[in-house]
Design brief:
binds alpha-L-arabinofuranose, six-stranded mixed beta sheet, Rossmann fold, carbohydrate binding, 330 residues, 2 domains, Putative ABC transporter substrate-binding protein, six-stranded parallel beta sheet
Length: 330
């Protein structure tokens, strides 16, 4: 519940957030209803963008959970740009929202704006992605996956797949957004696991920005420059799905000629896995909304909240995908 009076500056801030949100809008419906005195908690949320199926599911989870919890959500879409997120957070501070949450596009460069939120007495919760700030008092909690573990699961599968075989394995990697926590950590975890076998070689590694179209174009260049690709490791389903199009266009069979590992387990990825076009998917759950709203309520009430809330996740083989698909939520 915002207990403060509205100044001209605050109203300007609301307008800026609404404009920035583009199609985003707020669950409150007007993109500018913060500052109400109706006893509701106001949450300012800055989302990365709409780069993937995962992100769309994550936005839906947050919007639906806020509505269910009776929280007034001020939603801002950063369209993949850190500067837009910083502007949105500053606007939330001007609006005097009760709590700020955001999913940082990249890990670095947040200290100044987080300090401003802290100075304004507004608790901040990181969702989905971490920041590299050394001062942990700048935010109250971080809810999301362990991306290093996700990379390790991908590496473990590959090591097992080639167990007992003594042959070179040429791997190409489609990285997520450069400088983002999932791209850095999924690469790290994977590398750790394959390091013990000199047969594994990452022959190409490039960003596809977590987007399907970029996954396709980067895979096209990989296929042109590197004839003997055995394995593709894509940091998310969308890039893997784009790459599948490139592989098929090159006359190769995805999942057979080139083994494919991806991360997320959204419906489109799971469908490709069940069809044999992907070999293994590491799950990353986007359904963070309900837990986030619990944290928001507690933070607003001044209660202690855990510094780290870890998401529970699994992995899927082709057979497991067939079983899971009919009830898959996203
Ligand atoms: O931060 C989570 C990652 O961001 C998802 O794995 C990816 O699909 C999304 O864009």
């Amino acid at each position: 519940m915002v207990r403060r009076n509205w100044s001209a500056a605050a109203l300007a801030g609301v307008l800026a957030v609404s404009t920035l949100a583009g199609c985003g809008g707020s669950d409150g419906g007007d993109g500018g209803s913060g500052g109400n005195d109706d006893g509701k908690i106001t949450l300012g949320f800055s989302q990365v963008g709409a780069e993937s199926g995962w992100r769309t599911a994550n936005t839906k989870s947050i919007q639906e959970s806020a509505a269910k919890a009776g929280i007034d959500l001020q939603f801002s879409d950063a369209q993949g740009k850190q500067e837009n997120q910083i502007t949105a957070i500053r606007n939330f501070i001007t609006q005097k929202v009760d709590v700020i949450a955001f999913s940082p596009v990249v890990t670095s460069g947040w200290d100044a704006v987080l300090q401003e939120a802290k100075d304004a007495g507004i608790p901040v919760i990181l969702t989905d992605r971490a920041v590299d700030s050394q001062d942990k008092s700048l935010y109250k909690s971080f809810i999301g996956s362990d991306f290093i573990v996700e990379g390790q699961k991908a590496g473990d599968w590959l090591v097992k797949e080639y167990e007992g075989k003594n042959e070179p394995v040429n791997i190409v990697e489609l990285q997520g957004t450069t400088g983002s926590a999932p791209a850095l950590d999924r690469q790290k975890g994977f590398q750790e696991k394959i390091a013990g076998n000199p047969n594994f070689k990452i022959v190409k590694s490039q960003t596809g920005d977590f987007k399907r179209a970029d996954g396709k174009t980067v895979m096209e260049t990989f296929l042109q420059s590197t004839p003997d690709i055995d394995v593709l490791y894509a940091h998310n389903d969308d890039m893997g799905l784009g790459a599948i199009e490139a592989i098929e266009a090159a006359g190769k069979k995805p999942g057979t000629d080139i083994k494919i590992i991806t991360v997320d387990a959204v419906k489109d990825g799971m469908t490709a896995l069940s069809q044999g076009k992907i070999n293994f998917i590491v799950e990353c759950s986007p359904l963070l909304g309900p837990q986030l709203m619990d944290l928001v309520k507690k933070a607003d009430a001044g209660e202690e909240i855990p510094a780290r809330v870890l998401t529970e996740e699994t992995t899927f083989t082709q057979e497991q995908a067939k079983e899971a698909l009919p009830t898959r939520q996203y």
